[in-house]
Amino acid sequence: MLWNTLNQTVELGWDFYLPVILFVVLIAMAVPVWAAIGSAAIVMLVMSGDLPLSLVGESLFTGIDAFALTAVPLFILTGDVLVRTGLSRKFLDVAEALTCFAKGGFGSATVLVCGMFAAISGSDAAGAAAVGRMTINRLVESGYPRPYACALVAAGACTGILIPPSIAYIIIGLVLGISASTLFLAALIPGLAILVSILITNIIMNRLYAYEGGGLMTMGEWLANLGKALKSGWYAFIVPGIIFYGIFSGRLTPTEAGATAVVVTIIMGFIMRTLTLADFPSMLVSSAKVNGVILPIIAFSAPLAEALAIMGVPQGFVASITSLTDDPYLLILLMIGILIAAGCVMETTPNIVILAPILKPLADNIGMNEIQFCIMMITALGVGFITPPLGLNLFVVSGITGESILKIAARAIPFVLTMLIVVLLIAYVPAVSTTLLPEIYQ
């Protein structure tokens, strides 16, 4: 019924169906997402005749001709430098000292260091790889089953796109014309809420199954451990401090904060003598590979978005959905369901560039704040990182450990459920994502 209503509203023909079928087939054949999006866009434009092909090249250029996108490779490079210099291990030392006073301390430390890494790199896959290599074996030695240890790291690394600065918020801000700095500020409470939900879930699992042993510490012992860790690793927090202060004080744009963070991290690496000039080629190549996956998707999404807009697909989608129900609570649930389903089968970047322009009009129609919509969308998509069949973090930790993806996914179910609770909270309580914003956004 929904599809019939959409078809009647927009009068869809083969100029729409064939590109969609082509896109699905190419994705199923493991063709790179940017190539699948580009092929579908070109076929749609050729068949519809709505936009001359001569303008596609210009559209590709304008799709990535944005100063804000410069922040993406900078944050990715900062994360790579952070790992090479060994500063990420200082985060782990401090996180472990913070949580060592109770049972389940190292599991909680693992989640905290995922959040710390997220506050610098803005990438979940990078966080899963970096933190996984440092912690999974130690988690197993502490008493955690290997599949659960992998699931814990995979869930914690979801904060990579949820805690600012986040590459996902830069991209959705570009797609919808919203300031990345505003989205970073709005995402602070929701991102921390996801982090806390994962921490609480791990604590509960420890209570139920007694994964991690260890005795309680006295306050004096805890303070001594924490003081020792901070004394030896306080300088590692200079980098996230620069990023957070620069962006949230308004003194630096996200791009400027990313550039400053890269320079400071490199200087610290040279001072610590853990970074040499010989490390630069591999770091730059590694960062370029990640960036080379993201930018082509954004570029090819521009002509696709133009074609969909000309055909009236977003407006038709809104009309068809609201013809079934006008209950905002049900419509929000429907949007969340679409986002979670999309996150299960496709990465965040293509989901943002394809779904944001389609779902945004529906959110506007029910009166949802545009900032709240962006936070809800990214958080719901973040759940997809630990859900099969294409949970990216599951594949990353599986690649590191050799553990079965299905076994990891099964142990990740409690984290998925608690994350969904936070998604619903964001969706139905606007204050969660707008409290820190100026009054104009509330």
From TrEMBL:
It comes from the Bacteria. Pfam families: DctM. InterPro entries: DctM, TRAP_DctM. Its main location: membrane. GO terms for molecular function: transmembrane transporter activity. The keyword Isomerase does not apply. Residues 20-431 form the TRAP C4-dicarboxylate transport system permease DctM subunit domain. It is a multi-pass membrane protein. Keywords: Cell inner membrane, Cell membrane, Membrane, Transmembrane, Transmembrane helix, Transport. GO terms for cellular component: plasma membrane. It is found in: Cell inner membrane. The chain crosses the membrane at residues 20-47, 59-78, 109-136, 148-172, 178-200, 234-252, 258-278, 290-311, 331-359, 371-392, 412-437. Part of the tripartite ATP-independent periplasmic (TRAP) transport system. The complex comprises the extracytoplasmic solute receptor protein and the two transmembrane proteins. Belongs to the TRAP transporter large permease family. This is TRAP transporter large permease protein.
